[in-house]
Amino acid sequence: MKFLRRDIGFHLRIGKKRRKKQVWRRPKGRDNKMRESRKGRPPLVSIGYKRKREKKSTIIVHNLQELEKIHQGHDSIILGKVGRKKKTEILKKASEMKIVFQNINIRKFLKKNESK
After folding, report:
1. Measured between alpha carbons, how far is residue 45 from residues 32, 34, 56, 91, 99 in Å?
2. Distance between the two ends of the chain, CA-based, in angstroms?
3. Residues 6 or more apart from 69 whose CB is under 8 A from it?
4. Tens of pLDDT, residues 8-60
5. CB under 8 Å to 8, separation ≥6 — which residues?
6. Radius of gyration of the chain from Cα atoms?
7. Which of 3, 40, 84, 87 is the most exposed place for a label (fewest CB within 10 A)?
């Protein structure tokens, strides 16, 4: 659901042509009908509109032992901060195991660092 600022159509400076100005601002006026959640007015931002997000199991791999523990059930696998020597070892093993990392292209990295 898109929550719009109150009285967008009435003021040119926050009007339909100016998308950046249409961001949500809570109505605070004393006699504001939208603040009172009267019938026929646009909805207010509240906790009831929150949507449920799927839980993703993310694993960060730092060494070969962590790589061997991984099985195919995980959604995303990320290569942690490691040096080039250990990174090439991990990626060679991952290509054998057919594991895909989200933050690095295995083939491209190995081809680039083949000669080094």
Report:
1. 15, 11, 26, 46, 42
2. 52
3. none
4. 767 666 666 777 777 888 999 999 999 999 999 888 999 888 888 777 778 99
5. 14, 15, 16, 22
6. 25
7. 40
Token code pair at residue 39: 């019938």
Query: Residues 6 or more apart from 100 whose CB is under 8 A from it?
Result: 77, 94, 106
Q: What is the pLDDT of residue 62?
A: 95
Sign of CA dihedral 6, 8, 11, 14: positive
Report whether 76 contacts 69 (CB < 8 A).
Answer: no
Rounded to whole angstroms, the Cα distance separating 69 from 58 reads: 13
pLDDT score, position 18: 73
Q: For 12-24, b where at least 16 C-beta lie within 10 A, e where not — what string?
A: eebeeeeeeebee
C-alpha of 12 from chain center: 33
